[in-house]
Amino acid sequence: MNSSPLATDPFTLLAAMVLILLLAGLFWAAMASSLKVVPKVSACVALANLLVAGSLAAHALRGVAPDLLTFWGSDAMSLAGLAALRAGMPALSQKPLAWRSGLAIWLCAVGTLATLPYAGDLHPHSGIVYSGLALLAGLAALDTWRQLRSRVKPGLSALLSGPLFIICALLAQRALASFLQGEAYAPDLLDADHSNLAFLWATLAMNLLINATLAFLVLMKLILQIQQLTRQDPLTRVLNRRALQEAIETEHQRMQRGKPYALVMIDMDHFKQLNDSLGHAAGDAALQRLVEVLGHSVRDVDCMGRMGGEEFCVLLPLTDLAGAALVAERMRWTLEQSQFNWQGQPWPLTASFGIAEALPSNANADAVLHRADQGMYRAKAQGRNLVQAREDEG
């Protein structure tokens, strides 16, 4: 004989799930509206929790409330809840909300349900609903796994995304059974049989773990954003001096294992005159324009950083002096051809470029930076808007 009422009472289990989902929904809603923590994702997760809570609450009222709410309404809300969850996951990686696929699945499932009466044999409805739910849960699980895979070890990413995959499997099993067994299988969440109770317990546990996993993902995103802010120049959005020097140090260690690299030092010409003539706001805008223009000449593997004032540096991995000269000349020409206007006043943008290739004789990365700096000052001394290496290298 079971001493635990929860073990044999599906209504109590449903009520517990509704309460947990409501609390989770309110938590995520506060994250989205008041705290502004990853608002798009938090809003989608809040909506998902609240819709699924509404679906389960409506289901629990079957036989008491109108069938339109407890059958069609419950199914439509559960599908909409998982569609909202699937829609929000890509936003964790600054991608657009994936609402189209979720909406398409929801419309297909709900549209089909609308053509079938909720009376007598319910197994077609069960198959349609659970198929749609399984598909949406599977898409959300894949998105979660992709998010985690890029941030943590493979084993941990599989473990943390596991609850969504388990939910997907549980829903897929019910969908398959509905289609294969027909009238012999018409699952109801209010049934007190052992298989349904096991399903409810598993779903309850997975809902808790899914919300915990999503909270972990959001926390990781916040940590990454904070780390990015500490490594980024606030004006130009390129690396700050410290972050760039760390990247150069790492590349210098690789150079000692046979991987060459080069540096390009950049100093905007006549920056003081620009500030004096047009104001400091114009100077800031000119620096942003310079970064925008030069950014088109660098590869994904290259790093650009602001060393201070109007001085920048570009790290070019796997590049020798000749390659650095080509990149710097392309930058110089592109900048010279660009246009910059401040409140209707045009100003020519040019810069002086110094290049240096890391050599085995360079004891550290600072020596390479110093040589590139000398090349830049040589370019300025020779009239500006030039690309130069140090005199004994050019």
UniProtKB/TrEMBL annotation:
GO molecular function terms attached to this record: diguanylate cyclase activity
GGDEF domain boundaries: 259-392
PROSITE patterns listed in its UniProt record: GGDEF (PS50887)
Family matches, as CDD domains: GGDEF
Alphabetized Pfam families for the sequence: GGDEF
Reaction catalyzed: 2 GTP = 3',3'-c-di-GMP + 2 diphosphate
Residue spans crossing the bilayer: 12-31, 43-62, 68-85, 97-116, 128-145, 157-177, 197-224
Gene3D superfamilies given in the database record: 3.30.70.270
Protein species of origin: Roseateles oligotrophus
Signal peptide positions (record): none
Domain of life: Bacteria
PANTHER family recorded: DIGUANYLATE CYCLASE DGCM-RELATED, REGULATORY COMPONENTS OF SENSORY TRANSDUCTION SYSTEM
NCBIfam families: GGDEF
Keywords attached to this entry: Membrane, Transmembrane, Transmembrane helix
Protein name: diguanylate cyclase
EC identifiers of the protein: 2.7.7.65
Keyword Aminoacyl-tRNA synthetase attributed: no
Main EC class the enzyme belongs to: transferase
